[in-house]
Amino acid sequence: NAGVTQTPKFQVLKTGQSMTLQCAQDMNHNSMYWYRQDPGMGLRLIYYSASEGTTDKGEVPNGYNVSRLNKREFSLRLESAAPSQTSVYFCASITSGRFGEQFFGPGTRLTVL
Amino acid sequence: GQQLNQSPQSMFIQEGEDVSMNCTSSSIFNTWLWYKQEPGEGPVLLIALYKAGELTSNGRLTAQFGITRKDSFLNISASIPSDVGIYFCAGQLRGTASKLTFGTGTRLQVTL
Fold it and tell me: Would you give per-residue pLDDT tens digits along chain A (113 residues)?
């Protein structure tokens, strides 16, 4: 069991470039989440998918799009990266019935120049 | 957005000391969780609390779900060097199924 995996681990972009962050989980979890973590601000929810086929905005969705490709995979896309999107991005998943016990991936450290 | 007030922001303690940190909010939470994050890693769940007044232990860690449902605390007894990291509280607000709100973290440093 790999748990929650994320790729890439590090990425540097120039302003205006696009990229997709990949996330996959092998725990048969229903719900998946994307967070960003900035210094001194904890984790903030960008988008989540409560179940396959559904996605909803979180606290800070502007500048991002998501795709729940199947039950295992949930990707986050930056269409036109901005320096304000420099952050560490975490994907998480949870099975139904255990509210809150989210399992996190190792993170993607993104720098936008 | 909804915020959890977590304190203290950082702690510098000696090995063997006990540690206490807490989270408070003006809103009612259904679930309280405590996570630990080490450098370069994602948060790892330490303790989950589901009922007001619940007191749960995980080794040297003990956490409680406040009676008012608006706060929680985490205690670490007899700290050791591997306790170093950032500790986050997180709560699931009533009526927001599956979504968590995170505190800003307590950075713990342990000296020998």
Answer: 679 999 999 999 999 999 999 999 999 998 999 999 998 778 999 999 988 889 999 999 999 999 998 999 999 999 999 999 999 999 999 876 666 678 999 999 999 99
In single-letter form, the type of residue at position A1 comes to: N
pLDDT digits (tens, 9 = 90+) for B26-79: 989 889 999 999 988 999 999 999 999 999 999 999 999 999 999 999 999 999
Q: Does A102 touch chain B (CB under 8 A)?
A: yes
Mutation to test the A interface, candidates B6, B44, B100, most A Cβ within 10 Å: B100
Name the residue in chain A with its Cα closest to that of B47.
Answer: A101
Of B4, B100, B104, the CB nearest to A100: B100
| Cα–Cα distance, A57 to A42 (Å, whole number) | 18
Does A100 lie at the interface with B, CB-CB under 8 angstroms? yes
Distance CA B101, CA B36 (A): 15
